[in-house]
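Quick one - inputs below.
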Amino acid sequence: MPTNLTRRQALVLPAGVALGSLVGRSAMAAEPVKIGLVAALSGPSAKSGEGITRGITIAIDEINARGGVLGGRMLELVRRDDESNPAKGQTAARELIDKEGVAVIFGGIDSPVSLAIVPVMNAAKVPFMGVWAAATNITRNGADPNYIFRLSAVDVLVDRALIKHAMTSFGSKKPGLMLVNNGWGESNLGGLTAAAEAAGVKLAGAEKFDDKDADMTPQLQRLREAGADALILVGNAAPGAQVVKSLQRSAWTVPVVSHWGISGGRFPELAGSWAGKVHFVQTYSFFGRQNDVGKRVLAAMMAKYPDVKGPGDVTPPVGVANAYDAMQLIALAIAKAGSTEGPKLREGFLGIESYQGLIKNYTKPFTDTNHDALNENDYVMVRYNGDQIEPIAG
Amino acid sequence: MLATALVSGLSLGSIYGLIALGFTLTFAVSGTVNFAQGSSVMLGAVLCHALVVGMHWPMVAAIPVALLACAVWGLVVERIAVRPFVARGTNSWLMATVALGIVLDNVVMVLFGKEPRALPSALADDPWVIGNVGIFPLQVLVPVVGLGLASLVHLGMHRTGLGLKLRAAVENPDAARLMSIDVTMLIALTYAAAALLAGIGGILIAPLYNVAYDMGTLFGIKAFAVAILGGLTNPWGVVIAGLAYGLVEACATTWLGSSSTQIVTFSAVIAALALAPSGLFGRRTKVRV
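Output:
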């Protein structure tokens, strides 16, 4: 077998190797960075998953138009439907990590699903970004190092805002609680009790309901007899609508202040003519004066989605806005880390200095002790007007 | 609080009783039941929604069409999931009816979608208010329809030629066949009637609740508990058991709180069955050995 190279071969071979290496590098550069999403894409909370998808997509389009991340790698969204089921969410998260090799996973509306995914992410050392589920212990989960980040409301802070709104807008001195009978309801029971104590008001009582309850008048009657002068509602769209229908049936015109779960589905349709009476919390409203980012996102939404003709059609706004800002922060974290490896990316999140976003101007959004980018100063109170979500004046 | 519990309990209890009547009909004649009776509840509500909201039919036209479809579905259940297994002398109809219900639920999920939808009704928008208690007109209609249908079933069984044939088939199917009574057809008819009753339940509850592909599951389970409690063979017993179940459920929530509802209700069912194993109003079957 000949082993001696001719002069020509000696010249061509290194050139070929160099060329091959360049081609290889450019192929690597073209490899997309996969971003996972595990959320309710079907079922009663399907609208939440659609909102989150749209927010991420608009941000990804902007980032990719700027040339992507890590020197030209495009971002690609990979979605999985958890059907609001914690076991399905956990399986989907594992599959996205093991088979798809995602750099980060976005979570959806359901706190029980996010709580099930948290240990999977911390064990796999892959960052998780919550953009809706608000249970306090999703980010404050005791893990060290903690790979769970959130750009969304936090129950313990929302609970303070809900009690404050009931007191200031409706003069409530004795609010009653209507809570969904699951981990999210439990998370808020603790938060609302503490918030009421801190605000110096006494609770009329705390009642629970299941997602499939057909009539909630008995629970409401208990609160009514206990002297409730406002209701704090924690639940998703379908059972939340049942609460409102049961109120209508009882002809009890008590003010209702709600957590934002009701905005994740067809609440106005299901609740009927009383839907507009409910005040609820969001992190952003596309109505009113917008900053430059707001104008840009609204224009992009209207250009990309034919059903979006104005600010009222960006529903649910919380899903879109949180997901948009979170995706931009992820791109900054990837740039800071110079890598998509979990541990480096985690450090990247902690290293973000500032970002002018849709919801606010973020400064050091994540630190070692705080993995929640939003706080109670970032909430707005809104209500439904028909299908549209509008801020409450005043 | 008592008045609220009564209104809530009687209204939901009538629905449970209505669905449970279907179990009674088929069990009395054939000794079998459609375990997916809840799916027929869902079918009535979903079809009514599709016609009224989707195709803008008037409610009066949509209801008979939806109910006819439910009756046809009842015939299909009997033909596919019951008759072949009974003919072979096995109890596999038990699993087959459950499986067919799951198939229907999932087909509807694909066609109708997973999101719950509303079925608006003028009877469930403006409540009548007396003191602290409000009631939708539909909630008054529900027990009236429930008791009216129970009366019809009773009269039909005891005052009509078809009822006579049914009772003959119940007493002695072989003798009935010898008297040229088509027992097979009678059984199929009771399945159609059972699905129709469930469909009525679904249409009545839809404006008060909502319409979803999986809405029938819980109603079906509760209705079966009611049917057993009432004594499977007694139509009046089943309706009364339905009302009792609804009242216990509402009273437990009202006085003990929502966390206790299922514990109290199902414990009450177990206690009642321990005291009266054939149900509160059922006949004890004598078995000759």
